[in-house]
C-alpha cells in the first residue's frame, strides 16, 4: 500500500513537471513570435511589388482635426487600389461620418463601423483602462470578420484597441494586417502618447516633421515624408 501511494505521488509529480515544461515552451514560443512581429529581421528591398487585386483597407477616424488630416491623406489615395474601405469611428463622434459620406459620395465600395471610444477628452487615465479594455474586446469581431490587409490610422486613442487586436491576430497568424500609423502634423518634436504606444505595434509610423525621425537607427519604424 505504501509503495502504491509512493508510485502514485511520483506519477503526479512527473505529470506536473511535464505540464509546466509544456507551458514554459509555449510561453517562450509566444514571446519569440511577439518579438519577431515587433522587430522583423527582413528588410524591404525598395522595389515595388505588383498586385493584381486591390488592398482591403480599414481606416480609423480620430475625430476633429485628426479626421481632417486623414481625409487629406485619403484624397491622395487611388480608391481603385484600396478597396473595399472600412471606416471606423468612435460612438461619440458624429462629424466624421458626414466627412466620409462626402468623400465617398460617388462610391459604393465602402462601409462604416462604429466602436466605443477608448478614452474621452479629459477622461482620467485610470478610468480609461477599463474603457480601453472594453473597446479592445469590441474590436475583435470586427477585425475577425473584415480581415483587412491594411489598417491606416492617425488619430488618438480610438485606434489603439484596433491596432492591439490586429497585432495579436498577426502574432497568432490569424490575420496578417499591415498597420500604418500617421503621426499628427501638430507633433513637431515629440511623439504623441498614441504614437509612443504604437511604435512597438505598428509596422510603419509616418511623421511629418524631421525632428521625429531617427536617422541613425536603421531598424526604426519611423519614416518622414
UniProtKB/TrEMBL annotation:
Pfam families in UniProt: Alg14 (PF08660)
Keyword entries, A-Z: Endoplasmic reticulum, Membrane, Transferase, Transmembrane, Transmembrane helix
Molecular function terms from GO: N-acetylglucosaminyldiphosphodolichol N-acetylglucosaminyltransferase activity; nucleic acid binding; nucleotide binding
InterPro entries, A to Z: DNA-dir_DNA_pol_B_CS, Oligosacch_biosynth_Alg14
Gene3D superfamilies according to UniProt: Glycogen Phosphorylase B (3.40.50.2000)
GO cellular component: UDP-N-acetylglucosamine transferase complex
Protein name according to UniProt: UDP-N-acetylglucosamine transferase subunit ALG14
Gene name as annotated: LOC105682065
Amino acid at each position: 500500500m505504501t509503495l502504491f501511494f509512493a508510485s502514485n505521488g511520483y506519477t503526479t509529480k512527473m505529470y506536473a513537471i511535464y505540464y509546466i515544461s509544456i507551458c514554459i515552451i509555449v510561453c517562450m514560443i509566444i514571446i519569440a513570435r511577439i518579438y519577431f512581429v515587433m522587430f522583423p529581421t527582413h528588410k524591404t528591398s525598395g522595389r515595388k511589388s505588383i498586385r493584381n487585386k486591390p488592398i482591403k483597407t480599414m481606416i480609423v477616424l480620430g475625430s476633429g482635426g485628426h479626421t481632417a488630416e486623414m481625409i487629406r491623406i485619403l484624397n491622395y489615395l487611388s480608391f481603385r487600389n484600396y478597396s473595399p474601405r472600412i471606416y471606423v469611428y468612435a460612438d461619440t463622434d458624429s462629424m466624421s461620418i458626414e466627412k466620409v459620406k462626402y468623400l465617398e459620395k460617388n462610391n459604393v465600395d465602402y462601409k462604416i463601423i462604429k466602436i466605443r471610444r477608448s478614452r474621452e477628452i479629459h477622461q482620467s487615465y485610470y478610468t480609461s483602462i477599463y474603457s480601453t479594455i472594453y473597446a479592445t474586446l469590441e474590436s475583435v469581431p470586427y477585425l475577425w470578420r473584415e480581415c483587412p490587409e491594411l489598417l491606416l490610422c492617425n488619430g488618438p486613442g480610438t485606434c489603439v484597441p484596433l491596432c492591439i487586436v490586429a497585432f495579436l491576430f498577426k502574432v497568432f497568424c490569424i490575420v496578417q494586417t499591415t498597420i500604418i500609423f500617421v503621426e499628427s502634423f501638430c507633433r513637431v518634436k515629440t511623439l504623441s502618447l498614441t504614437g509612443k504606444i504604437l511604435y512597438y505595434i505598428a509596422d510603419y509610423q509616418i511623421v511629418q516633421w524631421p525632428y521625429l525621425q531617427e536617422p541613425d537607427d536603421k531598424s526604426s519604424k519611423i519614416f518622414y515624408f
